[in-house]
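Re-running the complex after MR caught last week's input typo. The corrected sequence lines follow. Everything else is unchanged.
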Amino acid sequence: MVLTKRIIPCLDVANGRVVKGLNFESIKDAGDPVQLAEKYSNEGADELVFLDITASSEQRETIKSLVKKIAEVIDIPFTVGGGVKSLQHARDILLNGADKVAINTGAVKNPEVITELMELFGKQCVVVAIDSRRNYNLEKGKNIFSENGKQFWFEVFIYGGKKGTGLDVIDWSKKIEELGAGEILLTSIDRDGTKDGYDILLTNEIVHAVGIPVIASGGCGKPEDMIDVFKNTEVNAALAASIFHYETHSVNRVKELIQKQNIPVRY
Amino acid sequence: MVDVAIFDYGAGNIFSLKTALEKNDANVDIITSFDQSKKYDGLLLPGVGNFDPAIRSIRDYSALGFHDFVKEKIPVLGICLGMEMFFQQSQEGKEKGLDVMNGEVVLLPNDMKIPHMGWNSLEITKDSKILEGVENDSWVYFVHSYRAKPDNEDIIVASADYGIKVPAVVEDKLFFGTQFHPEKSGKVGSLMIKNFLRVCSK
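Corrected-run output:
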């Protein structure tokens, strides 16, 4: 056998509840994070990602205790992100039972934090989350692509997809790998919440640009979308939220369908 | 109750390991020095951190050394980095390893994605106390960039396929090492922890 593709349910948490938005906006309640985490772990999820989407500093203590409660009920790897800016904050999260810390805006603002985290906790603990959006205003020095006759480049967005950075996603991916990131959580804002499937073009580009594992995220509306991303890219893992939250599909059922397509999964 | 200690190098998640041991009815203390008045039935070297700082935290802050603490009487489970420290040296660092197993720790080949991260299946090649009841081809969770290269391959009791053969479980007398994380490997991992605790209780 070989290394399997990972199926990762994601819990976007605001004010202690799991929520789900469309294109990073209009939010809807989807349940209790501890209950959902336990359910996914028992159903065969390969890993869990927990993102505090409010990411306000007042919430830090609440998040710490929530991380601990989740770590107590699951026996699979667990990544926590949302508003992580400092080593101390990352340490709080890891010591309360998370295996990896995802860092996004904090990494763009202060890239050295990636190296500091790596040196202290090891590369495997450091996930850099990248939110990518197509930018049709072409600029010199960017990696240009075209789709349906339109040209664009992939721009890194921060603050929950609200603010462009001018950074090219491909260049940024290579940079964070050099700085010591152990994994990339790659979200396509263009696809997020649309249920139109993963961003195959973007995912392929990043998988080939770096030598560290990549998680595809954004756009999964059905199990076939996962099959599609695994067949058409060499991505290591696929993350999804809403298809699992609303009991549309159990993790087990999704993995069964993927396995039938001869894609290696733990099932 | 089995009394075990987890040595904390101060660099990451040991909460999950503690929880996994407690779920299997162990009494767990987190220690940062071997100068302990309490006697333990087992010791765990967890799998988070970097080689050199972890070795230094074991070597530099206790009057009693690792070997005197263990005295070939206390079973030790080394997980990931914890297992890598059993060997004489590692390409990850400059410090000397604990030298309870002969051989070195080397970087994984760079034609594969590094770290090797995710669920891979175990090819069990030998009977082992820690793998009792574990089926061949069971899935376990790996996350590592280095692999063990023991001088004596007889100590390898299970491997995983990641382009090359990666030693996944090593066993020599009372030293048990897993390159993967049993505390993150669902029910199969919990079974291995239970097996280790049984060895400790004898």
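None of the earlier attempt is carried over here. Residues 18 and 93 of chain B are 27 Å apart (CA to CA). Chain B is about 20% helix and 35% strand.
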